[in-house]
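Batch 3, record 17
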Amino acid sequence: MPLRADEQQHPQAFRECMEIADDVRRFNSLEHGHALSSLGAAFDSLFSGPGKSWAGAKSRLGDFCSHVPGTSNPRFFLEPFYGNGNEGVVAAFCETAAGRPVLLSVVAFIGPGPSDAPNSAAARVLALRRARQRARDL
Amino acid sequence: MSIKQTELTRRLSGTPGFDEGYEQALRRQEFGERLRKYREALGLAQSELAVRAGLDQGDVSRFEAGKWGKRGLSFEKLEKILPILGLQLEHSIRPLPEQAVSKEMQQHLRALSSLL
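Prediction for the assembled complex:
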């Protein structure tokens, strides 16, 4: 189903965040709670522009995420967000031709969740693959 | 510019570790903004600051966005950047406000301060 033009994240990315949060509660995995908070603060800064718009917001994707080389329309960005240790989450975003950021996938790594990636490199691969698939809904 | 919470972070609020981590992340964003203002006041591009400090432009970009830890700001990197901005790092440790610590901890701190 196509995403609305003002959608901040893909619904499956939203669901992934909630599933990671559920795992944090279930396994008391505080590192992943911290990693989610770093991602969350960065995410909010993308949408804190005047009015409800991402335009003129505090941050742009390129401020804290790495652009995936070779991607132009949409441009994909990947970034790991760590807790206080080695554990964390990888977030994949894209930036549409109009410059709107969209969170497309979130994958936890070194976590207790059954679907977590074993390390950040594996999480990046998985997050980007999902992002590319979901970008078709833009 | 103040941060507006999105639906995503409102829903994540209450997750163990999230709220205190979120507050900390916002403080780090403010700190990064201050660094950016100092850099801009000197008319330095991120890339120029990075070269002078022996870092990557991505590092500077991440500091200014408030990222610490792995792939972000550390005291070591901060010590490279601050002198270029005409600043220095001042380390200080202060007790938490009394209401934020237990009575037992308050007694412990009082005993400690008498030793210093």
